[in-house]
């Protein structure tokens, strides 16, 4: 029972993050519509009740949205949690590093280094912790 409640909580958090992410690019009505499409999608059973897929979806959308907002500590924590639960979190790291470089390279060196440490320390911690699992991929 606790698993089902936790899965519903992460599903609704994923819908909220998806709506906030899509609303960054288009009008808020389209963001709300995208969350509605996820609910009505054929695979919404996997997202809502039948699988553990809502947690990685929530963590991925949270990491991307906070990277767009330049909140690098939250991005690093979300990406580290994603890499802890799913190995594909490591594949997202180079994409977000490119995004980081694209928008942070114009900042002063110390501020860029601080943000990079905020972003990478949680990710490196998870990589070191689960090194044996990532070697077997």
What does this structure look like?
By secondary structure, the protein is mainly alpha-helical. The protein contains 8 helices and no strands. It has helices spanning 2-23, 28-40, 44-50, 54-68, 72-85, 89-104, 109-129, 131-135. It is flat, with a radius of gyration of 16 Å. The mean pLDDT is 81.
The helix/strand class is mainly alpha
- Show unreliable segments: none
Shape: flat
What about the largest sheet? none
Q: Give me the number of helical elements.
A: 8
Radius of gyration: 16 Å
Helix content: over 70%
Q: What pattern of helices and strands is seen along the backbone?
A: HHHHHHHH
Q: What gap, in angstroms, lies between the N and C termini?
A: 33 Å
Beta-strand percentage range: under 5%
Beta strand count: 0
**Overall pLDDT confidence:** 81
Element layout with pairings:
Elements: H1 2-23, H2 28-40, H3 44-50, H4 54-68, H5 72-85, H6 89-104, H7 109-129, H8 131-135
Keywords:
single chain, 137 residues, mainly alpha
Put the structure in a nutshell:
By secondary structure, this protein is mainly alpha-helical. Helix content is 82%, strand content 0%. It is built from eight helices and no strands.
């Amino acid at each position: 029972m606790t698993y089902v409640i936790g899965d519903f909580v992460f599903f609704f958090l994923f819908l909220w993050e998806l709506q906030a992410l899509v609303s960054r690019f288009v009008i808020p009505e389209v963001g709300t519509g995208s969350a509605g499409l996820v609910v009505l999608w054929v695979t919404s059973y996997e997202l809502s009740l039948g699988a553990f897929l809502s947690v990685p979806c929530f963590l991925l959308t949270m990491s991307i949205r906070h990277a767009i907002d330049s909140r690098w500590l939250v991005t690093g924590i979300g990406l580290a949690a994603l890499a802890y639960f799913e190995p594909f979190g490591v594949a997202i790291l180079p994409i977000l590093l490119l995004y980081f470089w694209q928008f942070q390279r114009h900042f002063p060196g110390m501020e860029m280094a601080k943000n990079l440490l905020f972003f990478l320390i949680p990710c490196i911690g998870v990589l070191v912790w689960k090194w044996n699992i990532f070697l077997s991929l």
